[in-house]
Amino acid sequence: MEKQRHTAKSVMELFRQLPEGERAELLKMLGEAQDGNEDLETMLTEKRFSGGRVCPICGGVHVQRNGRRANGSQKFVCKDCGKTFSIRKNTIFSGTHKSASVWKEFLRCMSEGLSLDKTAERCGITHATAFVWRHKVLDAIGDALKDTELTGIVEADEAFLPVSYKGDRKAFDGGGCGRKPRKRGGCNHKRGLSDELVCLPCAVDRKGKAIGRVAKLGKCSAAAVKAVLGGHVSAKATLCTDGEASYRKFSKGNGNGLVQIKGGKGTVKGIYHIQHLNAYHSRLKAFLASFRGVSTKYLNNYLTWNNVMGAARSLAEKATALMDIAVSALFSETSASIPDRPPLPILVEKQSKNKL
Fold it and tell me: For the chain, how big is the Rg over CA atoms in Å?
């Protein structure tokens, strides 16, 4: 029996007969088929070599084309170090085989703050892949934003979150955390600012730029404030804080003017207040709560994610910001090393010798 041959016109007639949902699915599949690996190669080349070709290994600028791989991707050779590389070298896309459309969809999922399960379902990838991709993106963004400088009026205060070993069974099975696992939503064993809490010094300026990282366990200290804010607050900035003494020492050493608000959250001294910082803390805790708990091991990445999301106004801006930074940033860590990070990424060693 002779097979029926379809023309463009007959295919269009069949398309019109499909239900609306299946039409959308077919259009999505056609888009993914058209937006393949070559599109990702082109996107990376335009971003990474926008100012001229640069070697991702040594930083040399004497880079030339050097044929193509078996899959058709362009190879380059650096005349300074002699290394051969592809445009994906030292990027978050290294070692992946998904098209640009899948990555763009993944970053749209991140801009919406979707869970790993929902992200995996929408992008057609596994839960494990979604987890690794998420932290690849956040690592790259964190590295790209490491030189962020806060200017003008800078509001600063610390937040405290319970230490969490979520997903890290090794910490309980002889890993040295010193306590039994607690059920989700369970209370700490100690009251007040104990070493069961991580201290996160945070700062925001009036332009929306923000800094925040895990510094230590327990009560805030001058060393913790310096470890997080040092190098990120302009010497010409005016620091606005609560009555915490740690910020007095930091502002003096950094050459900043200092206005301390000691009358509570609603207190305002002219143009000086910490209401932006209080709002930042509220958004941060709501953002973390949407994931039903975040392991302290990965908390710095979620802080970075929250900072990027807070600076953008719309979902489209958020997705674009994530893509621009992720494509441009250098990233050389392997996927296998991401889960092997220390459970407590503290910058200042804890004062107490007591275990958690």
Answer: 24
Contact 321, 144 (CB under 8 A): no
Query: From CA 226, how far away is CA 305, in angstroms rounded?
Result: 22
Q: Is the dihedral of CA 178, 184, 189, 190 positive or negative?
A: positive
Q: Which pLDDT tens digit goes with each residue over 295-307?
A: 999 999 999 999 8
DSSP 8-class letter at 232: T
DSSP-derived secondary structure letter, 196: T
Least confident range from 47-56, 111-120, 321-330: namely: 321-330
DSSP secondary structure string for all residues of 276-299: HHHHHHHHHHHHHHTTT---GGGH
Other Cβ atoms within 10 Å of 256 Cβ, number = 21
- The DSSP result for 105-120, as a single string, is HHHHHHHTT--HHHHH
Structure confidence by residue, pLDDT tens digits, 142-195: 888 889 999 999 999 999 999 888 877 666 665 556 666 666 655 666 666 788
Which residues make beta-bridge pairs with 178?
none
Residue 76 host element (H or E): strand 74-78
Q: Is the pLDDT of residue 331 over 60?
A: yes
What burial class does residue 297 get, using C-beta atoms within 10 Å of its C-beta: 0-12 exposed, 13-18 middle, 19+ buried? buried
Identify residue 218 by its one-letter amino acid code.
G
Question: What are the φ/ψ torsions at residue 30 (nearest 5 degrees)?
Answer: -65, -40
Please tell me the distance from the alpha carbon of residue 257 to that of residue 245, in angstroms, as a whole number: 14
Overall residue count recorded for the chain in this entry: 356
d(CA 274, CA 251): 16
| Residue 305: partners with Cβ closer than 8 Å, 6 or more residues away | 110, 138, 141, 287
Which tokens is 8 given?
């463009």
